[in-house]
Amino acid sequence: MGTIIITGGSRGIGAATALDSMTAGLAREVASVGITVNSVRPGFIQTDMHADGGEPGRVDRLSSGIPLRRGGEPEEVARAIIWLLSDEAAYAVGSAIDVTAGV
To answer: What residues form DSSP beta bridges with 98?
Structure first.
């Protein structure tokens, strides 16, 4: 019937816990009426957000601490969202997908 996807870019423990709790709680609340709820947790993604925040080279500067040694691209996060919106993800309910390159 429908899909709700929650995204969050904060890596703080409190924010991540809140995101997970909200995803799980809402998923249980609406699954019986055919609505799936999942979340996507992006890691260090190459976006203008860093430049807008005053640190345009942030992802590149931090890339040595990322197991893949690079920041992610917005399209890589979008692919996870597209999968969650597809029929292939019909049984995914209350799940969190980390798109973080192992961070």
So the answer is: 41
